[in-house]
Amino acid sequence: MNRLMDIAKVLRSKNAGPLQVTFDIIFENKESYKRVVSSGVIVEDEIARIYEVDKNDVLITEYDIINSIKITIPRKYVSGDLLDNDVYGCQQHVPLSNLLIP
Fold first, then answer.
1. Distance of alpha carbon 17 from alpha carbon 50, whole angstroms
2. Number of domains composing the chain
3. Which residues, at least 6 apart from 95, have a Cβ–Cβ distance to it below 8 Å?
4. What residues are paired with 20 via a beta bridge?
5. Radius of gyration of the chain measured on its C-alpha atoms
6. Which residues of 21-51 are buried (b: 16+ CB within 10 A; e: fewer)?
7. For residues 87 and 80, is the Cβ–Cβ distance under 8 A?
8. What is the extent of the structural domain holding 76?
9. CA–CA gap between residue 69 and residue 87 (Å, rounded)
10. For 32-70, what is each residue's pLDDT tens digit?
11. Is 7 helix (H, G, I), strand (E, B) or coil?
12. Are 73 and 57 in contact (CB under 8 A)?
């Protein structure tokens, strides 16, 4: 098993407006992309579990032609809220990066 961060070429998070955060997972080749997609690890239930959101609020889009996956979830706090500790959403990818891929 490998961590997702050891397989992906790019793994990042950023705001998708003030209410959502999006994750980009980009792979160097089709083999790595297919390995992750076929593992069944990047699914709504798992993303909801690690980010503590409702699975119905998780959007996962696979882009076969460019070997990438985009995930969008609601932010816990609106960007810039007093309780928000990551106004740009750029540090939210860490739990995702540690997912184990068989």
1. 21
2. 1
3. 50, 51
4. 74
5. 13
6. bbbbbbbeeeebbeebbebeebebebbbeeb
7. yes
8. 2-101
9. 23
10. 999 999 999 999 999 999 999 999 999 999 999 999 999
11. helix
12. yes
